[in-house]
Amino acid sequence: MKAKQSTLTVITVFGILSGLAGMEHGVGEILQGGASPGIVFASWPGSTFFQSVAGEPAMSLIPNLWVSGIVSIILSLAFIGWALLGKRRWWAALLLSVLLLLTGGGFGPPLLGSIIAMTALRLNAPLKISGERHVPLLRKLSAAAWPWLFGLAIAAWLVLMPGVMLFDLLIGVKTPERVVPYLVLLAFTLLLLAIATSHAHDARNAESD
Question: What φ, ψ does residue 192 adopt, rounded to 5°?
């Protein structure tokens, strides 16, 4: 597993971020008590802090927000545990992501968790090491770009949450409906690029050992 440290690092960091985001939804639902607003609802309705993200939308098949919030937090903690411990079976992360979607964990955290689950498949994929052959220029560039893309991806996700909320609270985002979608697109794009280059970075490290 050490040979794939870069991929594992992406899984661990963004698995934790996914779990924390899911927990945030759960806390908002618990604070609403035993209300039953319907399948789709806002985790933080009326919250000034979360107004720039429409109160953090979520869905749940559980007709009680208090119970839904408890389940969301438990599943989020399980996802964090998966990211930190164990053999990181991809199917376990995917199952947790689906359950999180259906029990009030929001829409972003389950999507992020699903991407991390698919990334975990790469832990079982062989590293294509060229041996004595010349390493292609594209793979060299990909390997060199990984640390930068990984750092930018983390920064983008932190800007998205809680950066947007803090900016809105302290300064005021006049048109959050225009700003947030672009930040979401940027965050997911950088994450996918970090995942795509992590394999090349792992391969280069394996060749240098």
Answer: -65, -35
Residues 18-51 have pLDDT tens digits of 999 999 999 999 999 988 888 999 999 988 888 8
CA angle 201, 19, 17 (to 5 degrees): 45
List, in sequence order, the alpha helices (H) in 32-175. Answer: 65-84, 90-102, 108-120, 137-158, 164-170
Residue 2 and residue 127 in contact, taking contact as beta carbons nearer than 8 Å: no
Cα(193)–Cα(8) distance, integer angstroms: 15
What are the structural domain ranges in the chain?
2-125+132-208
- For 58, the enclosing helix (H) or strand (E) is strand 57-59
The answer on pLDDT for 114 being more than 90 is yes
Cα 144 to Cα 100: distance, rounded to the nearest angstrom: 35
Instruction: Report the distance separating Cα 124 and Cα 102, nearest Å.
Output: 29
Smallest CA-to-CA distance from 15 within 156, 123, 160, 120 is with: 120
d(CA 168, CA 172): 4
89: Cβ–Cβ under 8 A, 6 or more apart, which residues? 120
